[in-house]
Write a structure and sequence with these properties.
six-stranded parallel beta sheet; alpha/beta; 310 residues; five-stranded mixed beta sheet
């Protein structure tokens, strides 16, 4: 199996580093100073699972890549999706499977609309990591899991084989790889965590540590998760478990310094995924005629606070 990872930041960089370390056939796409630093010095990782290590991955700019991979992990920010579509069209073969692992819930559906001739699965990732310097990534906590599957239909026999092999290769790399039988539910389940952490963190200007302690901030996080559960039921999705309990367990396993990339981008004055991660929840609630008071409040205040600021 030949793998390509588009994007080498906190998400794609971790996947690429672990798979390179396990000697999988994997290539990575990066750009700018990050690309040059990795070419020059390798990709330096700080992890809780394996400590510090450096790998020397097969890495290039998009315009330099000319192979045809079996699996493409798309690990860019939601606002960069349109920019990678021409590249995917150029390199994808007839049997290539695209697996987006973005924070934005509708990424797979959006890519499939733009790439009708290519199989686009859906996916989600559980990992807390960020670039600390060019060519350097730090992971915050042990959790590292990728869940993926075909959305809205039964996978073909060939697709099932490739997805199962992908899961096996991820597991051999130290990443928990899971083929989902209901990726619509599982991707929304992941969204219920990252959206709540992003909204709570951005609203209060705090990291995970503040949400791990009893009090107003933690209560806000809990209420946001409950509202995602309400939204999911209105969408016809039943999680089948207590997602508050589940997401609090994920939160407890993070380092107190952890924050979402959306929050870090806002603090740095950069473009962020706030539309897809926070505003879309309140907007979808309004479309479905349900009240989501905490999301509505945070959306209203952040829209007012950030309007024309960046």
């Amino acid at each position: 199996m030949k793998y390509l990872i588009i994007g080498s930041g906190g998400t794609g960089g971790c996947i690429g580093a672990y798979m390179t370390r396990a000697k999988a056939d994997v290539a990575m796409i990066a750009r700018g100073c990050h690309l040059e630093a990795i070419r020059r010095n390798g990709l330096f990782m700080e992890t809780t699972a394996f400590g510090q290590f450096t790998v020397y991955p097969k890495i290039s700019a998009a315009e330099e890549y000319s192979e045809s991979p079996d699996i493409i992990f798309v690990c860019v920010k939601g606002y960069s999706l349109d920019g990678v579509i021409p590249f995917i069209k150029r390199i994808a073969g007839k049997d290539t499977i695209i697996i987006p692992v973005l924070n934005i819930y509708t990424a797979g559906e959006y890519l499939q609309e733009k790439l009708p001739e290519i199989t686009v699965a859906d996916g989600c990732i559980y990992v807390a990591a960020n670039i600390t310097d060019y060519g350097k990534i730090k992971m915050h906590g042990d959790i590292f899991r990728i869940i993926f599957g075909i959305r809205g239909r039964e996978a073909t026999a060939a697709e099932k084989i490739r997805l199962q092999q992908t899961a096996a290769d991820l597991n051999s790399s130290g990443i928990m790889g899971i083929v989902s039988e209901n990726i619509r539910r599982d991707a929304l389940l992941k969204f219920s965590y990252v959206s709540a952490q992003a909204a709570c963190g951005a609203y209060y200007g705090v990291t995970a540590g503040a949400m791990q302690k009893d009090g107003e901030v933690r209560n806000c996080f809990i209420e946001l998760v409950r509202e995602i559960d309400t939204l999911a039921k209105a969408m016809g999705v039943d999680f089948g478990e207590d997602i508050v309990k589940r997401n609090l367990k994920i939160l407890a396993d993070l380092l107190p310094s952890s924050s979402t990339s959306m929050q870090r981008d806002i603090e740095a004055g950069k473009q962020s995924e706030i539309d897809g991660l926070i505003y879309s929840v309140a907007d979808n609630g309004a479309k479905l005629g349900i009240e989501l008071p905490m999301y509505e409040k945070i959306t209203r205040e952040l829209r007012s606070k950030l309007k024309n600021k960046y």
